[in-house]
Amino acid sequence: MSMTLALIGETALALEAARMAQEAGLRVSLVITRHAPLRAHAEAQGIATLPPDRLDELPGGIDWLLSAGNLRPLPGAVLARFAKGAINFHDGPLPERAGRNVPVWALLEGARRHAVTWHLMTAGIDAGDILVRQGFDIPPGATAQSLNALCFAAAIESLAEVFAQMRHGLRPRPQPAGQGRMHRAADRPPADALIDGRGPLKAALRLVRALDHGDRENPLCCPKIAGPQGPVLVGAAALGDDARPNEAPGTLHAVSEESLDLVFEDGVLRLSGLRRPDGRPCAADTLFAAGDRLPVTQAEPLTARMARLAGAEPGWRARLEALRPVALAGFATPQATGEGEGESRALSVDATPERRIAAL
Q1: What's the CA angle centered on 277, arms 210 and 225, to 5 degrees?
Q2: Euclidean distance between CA atoms 190 and 207, whole angstroms
Q3: Cis peptide before 95 (omega within 30 of 0)
Q4: CA–CA–CA angle 80, 84, 85 (5° rounding)
Q5: Could you give the C-alpha distances from 158 to 77, 117, 118, 192, 246, in angstroms and in order?
């Protein structure tokens, strides 16, 4: 009889793991997910599914649990339900970097190498014995989006070895105690990623690239500068003119519609892809002019405030995502009248949290 496997995850990696497990001769008997493509795959294959918030309904008799793209810690009582054990994918090198958003922190700190790790799950976060670790170079100019793609590729490439160990015997390697770092979900870059022209130019360039998730959700924060009407988000950065202007750090050396050149002590950084906090693009030359000085950031107080606030973000996000429109007496909705845009239009339940906040 083939070994049975339960799979938990919320990303495309979990979907690929389900397909590869079946190809490797493992019988996927349960999928725990809210990820629609994975759920559809499971249903098409006749595999039972379970939402992640109903783990108390786990059936018995399953050999393995494979966690791929799952960000929820699992209690020891859940892990103990699986006869042979539980294995987790971590998008960073262990024991050096445990926890959340590890590719971002690797880029922020200028790492030149990275790795992904498959390890046994324990009650501690990313603390179990290592089964497979695959390392690779971080290419110059990498962003969070591109490094995450490299992690995905390394995960797929190394997963075959994980399945081989599950079938023929594990080869665990204990993690050395006290040699790693824990990146927590609420950790944020200093000063909430505010750029003001002070400090090394390359650190600011790394900051912008490390927080560039492309069209995927950004789980930390956006790089930004202080504008005359509030924060201006920065989408991209590149080295500016090699010549170092005779201007103080924090000065805007040049401004165009698409970008602005910010002076640092050791050069000029061109910032582009500028947006308002609600995501709307903005023209740099409508907010700034050449010769303007960005205000000096009091980094430590801002960092401390964000450290206090970041821990509450998941709760607020869940509340905002659960908001529903309120029917106000005397105000017709498009569904009732067939009218188009207007002040009376009810806010759609499909609106983003940012739009809901703006509407409120």
Answers
A1: 60
A2: 10
A3: yes
A4: 55
A5: 28, 9, 8, 35, 52
* DSSP string for 47-101: -EEE-GGGGGG--S---EEEESS--S---HHHHTTSSSEEEEEESS-TTTEEESS
pTM: 0.85
């995905």: which residue's tokens? 152
Written as one letter, the residue type at 311 is G
Confidence of residue 346 (pLDDT cuts 50, 70, 90): very low
**Contact of 14 with 7, CB cutoff 8 Å:** yes
Q: Which two tokens stand for residue 142?
A: 């990498």
CA 57 to chain centre: 29
pLDDT digits (tens, 9 = 90+) for 189-227: 999 999 999 999 999 999 999 999 998 889 999 999 999
Identity of residue 260: L
Instruction: Quote the pLDDT of residue 309.
Output: 81
Tell me how many degrees the CA angle 353-104-106 measures, rounded to the nearest 5. 170
